[in-house]
């Protein structure tokens, strides 16, 4: 049974997300739309199977929810800080590049970390090194590089590692 | 809906609109006046996340109070922007590394990251 | 009150778009211009959502979704062009 489902839906998370997006797009919960959404949710992952490097699998949903909460809160706080930096005198800025050493190998986990870093204002991920071991990021105002690296690692990387269990 | 809660909703929507318009404007001011490309890159990522996000929350509130069913389609745009903004920022940064645009930032050596 | 808030927000976003346009015209480098274009389309989405509330219509939702997609693809294509000198590999 489980194997049959696995064959039908190679990426269950993706299928659920696709169905939800379809229902939001058509703004309706009518049976016809649910059926059409389900068909799309089954076939799109199959058609795009070659593009997915490995299976996406979240392990701890509770950690994921908490991480989303942390990120939203950080976006809010950091936006206010960065807005003050932008509108204040330009001399107060100390922009610099920082390399954060990575402990993860899962490509989805690294992509998630890089996206979170770019979404929270004040830091943008610029480049991943060729061996996937270091992430170059640019900070708008970094008085202390060590502190930035530590906060990225404890605040975001640790929960992501738990979620992907790698 | 009572007049009281309608009033409250209007205040809430107005606050969200004003706050997000302010953040969008701040992001664009940053784009216009910051000294080099990498610092300017911070403007739009912020404008997306907070500016447009807040605008869409206001829209969800407004249309949900109006219609009979919760209007959640704005969330699709928010989600889409939250997913795509880091990707565009990353690609733009790669392009800038590749062209070696001038920058005022100190810190780590970026010669190991030539841009693909 | 909502009408006043919408007017102020419209003015702020129009000003923001003018600033983006200025950056788009001034450059100085190619990535700066692409970045300005990217910001311009994001601000357009904000403008359309505002107009949707102002005219009390849901039509603008589809428009902003399309602009979001096209704008993203445009940014990716421009960056790829700078990186490789070619769009389709």
Question: What does this 3D model show about the protein?
Answer:
The complex is a heterotrimer of chains A (166), B (116) and C (89). Chain A folds into 2 domains: 50 residues, no CATH class; 104 residues, Alpha-Beta Plaits (2-Layer Sandwich), CATH 3.30.70. Helices cover 60% and strands 11% of the residues of chain A. Chain A is built from 6 helices and 3 strands, in the order H-H-H-H-E-H-E-E-H. The two termini of chain A are 28 Å apart. With 116 residues, chain B is mainly α. Chain B has one domain. Chain C is mainly alpha-helical and 89 residues long. Chain C has 3 helices and no strands. The model of chain C has no long low-confidence stretch (mean pLDDT 86). Chain C has one domain: Helix Hairpins (Orthogonal Bundle), CATH 1.10.287. In chain C, 40% of the residues are buried. The termini of chain C are far apart. Chains in contact: A-B, B-C. Chains B and C meet through helix 1, helix 3 and helix 4 of B and helix 1, helix 2 and helix 3 of C.
CATH architecture of chain C: Orthogonal Bundle
Radius of gyration of chain C: 15 Å
- Determine the mean pLDDT of chain C: 86
Distance between the termini of chain A: 28 Å
Tally of DSSP β-strands of chain A:
3
Topology:
The complex is a heterotrimer of chains A (166), B (116) and C (89).
Chain A (H helix, E strand, L loop, with lengths): L1 H7 L3 H15 L4 H17 L13 H27 L8 E6 L5 H13 L3 E6 L5 E6 L5 H20 L2
Antiparallel strand pairs in A: 1-3, 2-3
Helix pairs in contact in A: 2-3, 4-6, 5-6
Chain B lengths: L2 H31 L3 H4 L1 H25 L6 H27 L6 E2 L9
Chain C lengths: L1 H25 L3 H26 L3 H26 L5
Helix pairs in contact in C: 1-2, 2-3
Q: Could you list some keywords that capture this structure?
A:
heterotrimer; B: 116 residues; mainly alpha; 75% helix; C: 89 residues; Helix Hairpins; 3 helices; 87% helix; flat
Write a short abstract of this structure.
The complex is a heterotrimer of chains A (166), B (116) and C (89). Helices cover 75% and strands 2% of the residues of chain B. Chain B is an all-alpha fold.
């Amino acid at each position: 049974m489980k194997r049959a489902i696995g064959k039908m839906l190679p990426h269950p998370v993706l299928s659920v997300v696709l169905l939800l997006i379809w229902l939001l797009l058509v703004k309706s919960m009518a049976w016809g739309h649910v059926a059409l959404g389900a068909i799309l949710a089954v076939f799109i992952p199959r058609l795009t199977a070659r593009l997915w490097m490995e299976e996406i699998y979240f392990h701890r949903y509770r950690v994921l929810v908490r991480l989303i909460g942390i990120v939203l809160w950080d976006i809010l706080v950091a936006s206010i800080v960065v807005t003050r930096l932008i509108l204040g005198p330009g001399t107060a800025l100390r922009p610099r590049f920082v390399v954060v050493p990575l402990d993860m190998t899962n490509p989805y986990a690294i992509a998630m970390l890089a996206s979170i870093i770019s979404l929270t204002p004040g830091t943008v991920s610029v480049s991943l090194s060729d061996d996937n071991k270091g992430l170059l990021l640019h900070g708008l105002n970094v008085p202390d590089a060590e502190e930035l690296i530590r906060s990225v690692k404890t605040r975001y990387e640790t929960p992501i590692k738990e979620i992907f269990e790698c | 809906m009572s007049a009281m809660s309608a009033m409250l909703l209007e205040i809430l929507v107005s606050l969200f609109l004003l706050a997000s318009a302010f953040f969008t404007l701040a992001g664009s001011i940053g784009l216009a006046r910051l000294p080099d490309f990498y610092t300017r890159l911070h403007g739009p990522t912020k404008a997306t996340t907070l500016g447009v996000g807040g605008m869409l929350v206001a829209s969800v509130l407004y249309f949900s109070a109006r219609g009979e069913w919760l209007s959640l389609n704005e969330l699709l745009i928010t989600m889409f922007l939250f997913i795509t903004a880091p990707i565009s920022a990353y690609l733009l940064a790669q392009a800038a590394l590749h062209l070696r645009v001038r920058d005022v930032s100190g810190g780590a050596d970026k010669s190991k990251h030539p841009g693909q | 009150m909502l009408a006043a808030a919408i007017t102020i927000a419209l003015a702020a976003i129009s000003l923001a778009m003018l600033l983006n346009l200025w950056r788009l015209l001034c450059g100085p480098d190619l990535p700066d211009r692409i970045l300005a274009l990217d910001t311009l389309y994001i601000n357009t989405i904000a403008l359309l959502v505002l107009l949707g509330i102002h005219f009390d219509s849901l039509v603008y939702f589809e428009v902003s979704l399309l602009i979001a997609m096209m704008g993203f693809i445009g940014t990716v294509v421009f960056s790829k062009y700078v990186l490789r000198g070619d769009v389709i590999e």
